[in-house]
Design a protein that fits this description.
Residues 14-104 form the Chorismate mutase domain. The protein is α/β, with parallel strands linked by helices and 376 residues long. 42% of the residues lie in helices and 24% in strands. The structure holds prephenic acid (PRE).
Length: 376
């Protein structure tokens, strides 16, 4: 006779093959060891925090965090992938940092923007989020002291520079202490799971431009409405079924929208680079980490050979230029500001000499910051 069905739920273990159970047992034991080790690490971070408080020095040390990650990647024996090291240790250091002091980070909000994702990617999740309504507000919130750091987009691999950020860099008292970049995957989001019936697509102008080809092909007669951020577009789409937004999948789940069409950006390798800014009166420039970048804005007077003269000191001292961007100076004279990234740190003698000579030939010379190159 068959057994009478029992109402009692079967224990998960009863169904699990013994081999799997044994492996999970080992994982559980290691997780407890890891937790113990992480707590010991957190205790040391707390002691570092006390020391820093006594000395009156700042908690966040981007160069130290970059060195910790670089060092671990170099000795990682696997099978954990090298690329997994940075995100794991960023979170560990974020949690340790939060024990020392809260880190308030301003970025272009609302919740669900790529800027928020960049902030979390750089600082880890243990931060106080300060979403702002515009790039201008991110700078303002950071310089007023309402946030310790600001995260602003500076360039996109499809669309080029983020002009507003570069223009503000010209006059802001803030400086750059870090950089991070993100793969930007745009998705069409909507309340209804269909393309039919969409009357307006709302997104940040950069996102509309990055999806121009897809929109022209699939929604040729639909209005494209620029809004302050992609997450704002998603928020609006959640309020009105005639609207669709273009934003991250995270923004879609944040606002309860269907992902009607995934990855609609024209360039599959679409990346955005962000700068991390802070107030130099409250935070010192990062020390040399061994893999650094120095960002400058310079201009030269409009005369034959001026640009060539600018490059000579870099060549003479063997300093690589990894970025060269021009923006009109708005003088009406066809004059330009050049946004230049140099490889290295001003504490390195060859970089210092090149910068001193460069300053001599420039009509305008501003150091935007020096910081560890993004470690992934
Ligand atoms: O080494 C320090 O200065 C610390 O405060 C510790 C620690 C870490 O967790 O490793 C935390 C925050 C800093 O940004 C750098 C590193």
């Amino acid at each position: 006779m068959a057994d009478a069905p029992s109402d009692a739920p079967k224990s998960a273990a009863a169904d699990t093959p013994p081999e799997l159970l044994a492996l999970r047992h080992q994982i559980d034991a290691l997780d407890r060891d890891l937790l113990e080790l992480l707590n010991r690490r957190a205790g040391l971070a707390l002691a570092v925090g006390e020391l820093k408080k006594k000395e009156g020095s700042v908690v966040f040390r981007p160069e130290r965090e970059a060195q910790v990650i670089d060092g671990l990647k170099a000795v990682n024996p696997g099978p954990l992938k090298k690329d997994s090291v940075a995100p794991i240790w960023r979170e560990i250091m974020s949690a340790c940092r939060a024990l020392e002091t809260p880190t308030r980070v301003a970025y272009l909000g609302p919740a669900g923007t790529f800027s928020e994702e960049a902030a979390l990617g750089f600082f880890g999740a243990s931060i106080v989020r300060v979403p702002c309504a515009s790039i201008d507000e991110v700078f303002h919130t950071t310089s007023s002291g309402a946030a310790d750091f600001g995260v602003v987009p500076v360039e996109n691999s499809t669309e080029g520079v983020v002009a507003r950020s570069l223009d503000i860099f010209l006059t802001t008292p803030l400086f750059i202490i870090g950089e991070t970049s993100l793969f930007v995957r745009h998705n069409l989001l909507r309340k209804e799971n269909a393309l039919e019936g969409i009357e307006v697509v709302c997104a940040h102008p950069q996102a509309l431009a990055q999806c121009h080809g897809w929109l022209s092909h699939h929604l040729p007669n639909v209005e494209r409405r620029p809004v302050s951020s992609n997450a704002e577009g998603a928020r609006l789409a959640a309020l009105d079924p005639r609207l669709a937004g273009i934003a991250s999948a995270r923004a879609g789940s944040e606002y309860g929208l269907h992902l009607v069409a995934p990855a609609i950006q024209d360039d599959t390798h679409n990346r955005t680079r962000f700068a991390i800014v802070t107030d130099p009166h409250r935070h010192p420039a990062p020390k040399a980490s061994g893999h650094d970048c120095t960002s400058l804005i310079v201009s030269v007077t409009n005369r034959p050979g001026a640009l060539h003269d600018m490059l000579v000191p870099l060549k003479r001292h063997g300093v690589s230029m990894t970025r060269f961007e021009s923006r009109p100076a708005r003088s009406g004279q066809w004059e330009y500001y050049f946004y230049v990234d140099l490889q290295g740190h001003p504490d390195e003698p060859h970089v210092q000499s090149a910068m001193m000579e460069l300053r001599e030939v420039c009509a305008f010379f501003k150091v935007l910051g020096t910081y560890p190159i993004d470690v992934k």
